[in-house]
Amino acid sequence: MTSTSDIPQNHSERVEPEDEPLLGRPGDASQKPDDNILRNLVTGTASVAQVGIWMLAALVWSGILSQPLSLFTAHPLLSISAVFLQVQSSLILQPTVTQRQKTRGARLHAAIQLISTLLFVSGFITIEVKKGSSARLISPHGILGLTTYISVVLQALAGVVQFFFPLAILGSVDAGKRIYKYHRWTGYVLLLLEMATVVAATQTTYNLIAIHISLGPVVVAAILTLAGVGARIKKQKLGIGLV
User: Could you tell me the pTM of the whole model?
Assistant: First the structure.
């Protein structure tokens, strides 16, 4: 979700150091006044993130669909689709600058995240039904996966509260704004957790015996995704460098 504080009234104003992304020039991560918001999906290092997440999704989808369809099939397909949407929701929101851009970006971000969260929950239900009475949490992937599912739901709830219902639940709009940066921090940490979960999936017995998705390409795709998203993080939005 986004904060409406410290918004420049004129896009031609000098960009302060805190408005700069972690890597690159300020313009590499800032939406121009007349830009279609969808351009945010490829602006600057977003193209790197897109290569990574499309590669990751292709590896999982092709690997899973190379096997006979079963109840289990839905679990990885739903989960990787959810991760794909999480990346898109971050990329579309990161470069917003003006209040109008931020509001529209936040609403699109929320809509995409809603679909993503529903896919995550569906993926969790699918694997729970598939496992039945079988043992759980016996692999790094299983432990990371459960942690991810819980974190995704909590992150989504926090975002909805702080952006849509700050007055009713937190007592004021300002109270919601004060926790925006923490929502962003946890969102980026959650993306790291999601990537770790996908990487860990390559070491599960099912993948090693049946699907054979290689660890190397998955790691490369995850690194590209994280690098592309991470390079566009604006220091100001995380509270870094503020006096």
Answer: 0.86
